[in-house]
From TrEMBL:
Name of the featured protein: Uncharacterized protein
Source organism of the structure: Pseudomonas batumici
Length: 96
């Protein structure tokens, strides 16, 4: 398995996550299209937020990055947020 974490901080991050919270059903439907999706979590930290995507392989996590970027460009381009800090790598342990 492979995971990607996107952390949004700074300018516009709080506004972006307030918007994402309002559109959570649409986000869920969109992320479910990612091939090999194992899990997706969206966390509002109050001053921004973090998403954690786990897929069966790197190909799926790369697809999740594209799907997320495209969704934000299409639906939240009016919010001027800094690009996310992206952390990714192979999953060592996952407990369900």
């Amino acid at each position: 398995m492979y995971a990607v974490i996107r952390t949004y901080l700074g300018v516009g991050a709080r506004q972006l996550f307030e918007f994402l919270e309002e559109r959570n059903a649409d986000i869920e439907a969109t992320l479910r299209t990612v091939p090999g999706l194992v899990s997706y979590t969206l966390l509002n930290t109050g001053d921004g937020g973090t998403s954690v995507t786990v897929c069966t392989d790197k190909t799926g996590s790369d697809a999740s990055l594209k799907v997320a970027r495209d969704w934000i460009q299409k639906n939240a381009s009016h919010i001027r947020a800094n690009p996310p800090i992206v952390t990714e790598g192979p999953v060592i342990v996952q407990i369900k």
